[in-house]
Amino acid sequence: MTRDREDDLPVEGLRERKRRETAERIRETGIRLFMEKGYAATTLEDIAGEAGISRRTFFYYYKSKDDILLTMQNGTGAAVAAALREAPPDKRPFEAVRDAVLRLTASIPHDELIVLDRLMRSGKAASYIQHEQTVFAALRKKWPEPEREAALRWIAMLAIGGLRLSLEAFSREEGKRPLVDFVREAFDTLEHEVGHHGS
Which of 65, 40, 72 is nearest to 50 (CA)? Predict the structure, then answer.
């Protein structure tokens, strides 16, 4: 009986992987077309055709072409939280968050960041509050002492706020420098100010 259940697992895993790969192919196709033709000029039919799927199949994975862009931004809090889980427990929460945000921003392709920036300025971005809550939850799990809760909430807000300000600076310079440079500067400035006033 146990054996049958185990035999079922690879099949389910294969189906899940195929679904994930198809979703990724649609997303990559959409982003490529947005960059080549422009977001407004790219139709849902264009994306489906290039990805080798039907219009009906497209709707199985995404609600609209907006949805493709939103997947780029919606995962921000979760990605920072995932990186936080790997942080050594003896690292200060502020340093752990800084390193997590730096790792995330260094991993996103430059071209995708340009598209993401346009999306965010179009007002279709996901809620920053949602990202703060996700990061805060990860911090609380890592450092569960009740007396640290207020400080950890601040750190979560600062992390997402720093990322937001960095994206704004990246946008003003029209992507001339990597986003990770702006993030590093934002955290360095913050740490300097906090350290300066705390001494």
Answer: 65
DSSP letters spanning 81-105: HHHHHTS-TTS-HHHHHHHHHHHHH
- List the chain domain ranges: 2-65, 75-198
CATH 1.10.10.60 fits 2-65, yes or no: yes
Positions in the chain whose pLDDT score sits under 50: 1-8, 198-199
Asked whether the CA dihedral 47, 51, 54, 58 is positive or negative, the reply is negative
By C-alpha distance, which of 144, 19, 27, 17 is closest to 75?
Answer: 27
Q: Which CATH class for the 75-198 domain? A: mainly alpha
Concatenated DSSP letters of 91-149: S-HHHHHHHHHHHHHHHS-HHHHHHHHHHHHTT-PPPHHHHHHHHHHHHHHHS--GGGH
Q: Three-class SS of residue 77?
A: helix
3-state secondary structure of 53: coil
Yes or no: say if 108 and 178 are a contact pair by the CB < 8 Å rule: no
Which pLDDT tens digit goes with each residue over 68-121?
877 766 678 888 888 898 888 889 999 999 999 998 888 877 877 777 776 666
Structure pTM? 0.68
d(CA 55, CA 66): 15
Integer angstrom CA distances of residue 137 from 73, 125, 153: 19, 21, 9
Tell the residue number behind the tokens 């971005």, with chain if given: 125
